[in-house]
Amino acid sequence: MTGPTRILFVSPYFPPFSPVGAIRMPHLAHHWAEGERRVDVVAVDNPNFAGLLPPRPHEKIAVHHLPYRPGQPPSDPAAAPPAAGSGPARDAEDPGYLKRLYRALRTLPDRYHPYWTQLAGTRGAEIAAASGAELIYSSGPPQSAHIAAARIKAATGLPWVAELRDIWLGQPYSDTPLPVRLLSERLGRRTLGAADAFVTVTEGAGEDMRARFDRPVTTAFNGFSPDDFPAESFAAPPAPLDPDRLTILHAGVVYAHRRDPAALFAAIARLPQADRAAVRALFYHDERGFVEARAAEHGVEANIEMRPLVPRTEMLSLERRVDVLLLCRWDDPRDDAVIPGKTFEYIGARRSVLGVGSERGEAAAIVRAGPFGLVSNDPDVIAGQLSAWLAEKRAAKARGDARVPDLPAEPTRAYTRAAQFALVDDALARLV
User: Fold this and answer.
1) What is the model's pTM?
2) Where is this region: Disordered (predicted)?
3) pLDDT tens for each residue of 152-183
4) Do residue 188 and residue 254 come from a single domain?
5) Percent of the chain surpassing pLDDT 90
6) How many structural domains compose the chain?
7) Under a CB-based contact definition with an 8 Å cutoff, are residues 254 and 283 in contact?
């Protein structure tokens, strides 16, 4: 084994207090632990996320959940997940400029600064000394991870690798007021400037970091874990969620006015009545009623179903039981270097992928290269593909299984987490 044998991992999101989509960090920690490395995780105790991602105990992983508010009592890790959403509820309507400005100034760069970052910096340095850590590795967002890591580095002198799962500088999805965005970027440049190396999860983000900082940069995609989908579910595929209707599932967050499913809705509206009645789309998050409004614009309200958030284990099971997995992206060049984490999970599920919203960028290229499905914003093209999938499902039903066939396994193997985390290991070995 080369590289560090003891790692201090600063990751605010870590089970059991983690949003359902923040799966890279526990998998990375387990990858290191299985490689005979000791990992101490400095994380946030946030009861809003209790129960969404189950913990995966390992004898070589110690997790230190720290409060993010003064006087906060320890949370119950066995608490039930929230009834809907993966965190505090959003306003039903868009908040006004002054409210957004006030909120953003109070939580710059996020709600975990300054209380948690100060505590994590102090406790992290103590944990590093006690454990004999050889390297600090931070993963954000929340970008407070990097602020805490910078403080630990200043206190210990240890080398620090900053992983940016979403970019901090030039973030295309930021809707914070411009003055706050400028302050956040200034803080980001100062904080990240202390890192010794970077890891990004897209090639575009890697190029951006190379242009901004004279530091080594490694790109390692999020990937998927074959363990998420039991082998027996491919040898003997599960019963379809709906044997009569082509079922399309969107497993992530639809960001209002950005990741837009409108092209799918327009395509459904163009189908013949019999085919149209045989298609339904499931969504598990609707920011400010955006999805339902888009469906109403195209007259397909009867074809969509809004459901409350479910634990990730249940979502993985659903991904195997539906026919098509929907990937929504933003039709803006700034989104070209953004790969939604669900992209790789979808690949691992080996169900057909339908990409809408943007036909450009890294995510679209991956889906096409597989090939793992269709990427299009043309309602006529999408309608044609829906008809083809419906024909496959009806033929399968006549044979007794009513499932659109699984995609082949071979093209998926390049996107496993093990293959991608090996690139991270190589980067760490070059530092320690």
Assistant:
1) 0.83
2) 65-94
3) 999 999 999 999 999 999 877 777 778 888 89
4) no
5) 78
6) 2
7) yes
- Give phi and psi for 270, each to the nearest 5: -90, -5
- Regarding whether 255 and 215 lie in a shared domain, the answer is no
- Fill in the amino acid letter for 334: R
In a domain, 1, yes or no: no
Q: Are residues 146 and 273 in the same domain?
A: no
**Average of per-residue pLDDT values in the chain:** 92
Other Cβ atoms closer than 10 A to 212: 17
Kindly state whether residues 401 and 424 are assigned to the same domain.
no
Inform me whether the pLDDT recorded for 95 exceeds 80: no
d(CA 360, CA 331): 8
**So what's the pLDDT on residue 287?**
76
Please give the average per-residue pLDDT across 393-408, as a whole number: 94
For the record, the structure tokens of 192 come out as: 């990240």
- Alpha-carbon separation of residue 119 from 44, 183, 264 (angstroms): 10, 22, 47
179 and 278 share one domain: no
Three-state SS letters, the chain: CCCCCEEEEECCCECCECCCCCCHHHHHHHHHHHCCCEEEEEEEECHHHECCCCCCCCCCEEEEEEECCCCCCCCCCCCCCCCCCCCCCCCCCCCCHHHHHHHHHHCCCCCCCCHHHHHHHHHHHHHHHHHCCCEEEEEECCCHHHHHHHHHHHHHCCCEEEEECCCCCCCCCCCCCHHHHHHHHHHHHHHHCCCCEEEECCHHHHHHHHHHCCCCEEECCCCECHHHCCCHHHHCCCCCCCCCCEEEEECCCCCCCCECCHHHHHHHHHCCHHHHCCEEEEECCCHHHHHHHHHHHCCCHHHEEECCCCCHHHHHHHHHHCCEEEEECECCHHHCCCCCCHHHHHHHHCCEEEEECCCCHHHHHHHHHCCCEEECCCHHHHHHHHHHHHHHHHHHHHHCCCCCCCCCCHHHHHHEHHHHHHHHHHHHHCCC
- Residues 139, 41 share a domain: yes
Say which CATH number the domain at 306 has: 3.40.50.2000
Which residue range forms the structural domain that includes residue 388?
226-414
Domain shared by 177 and 297, yes or no: no
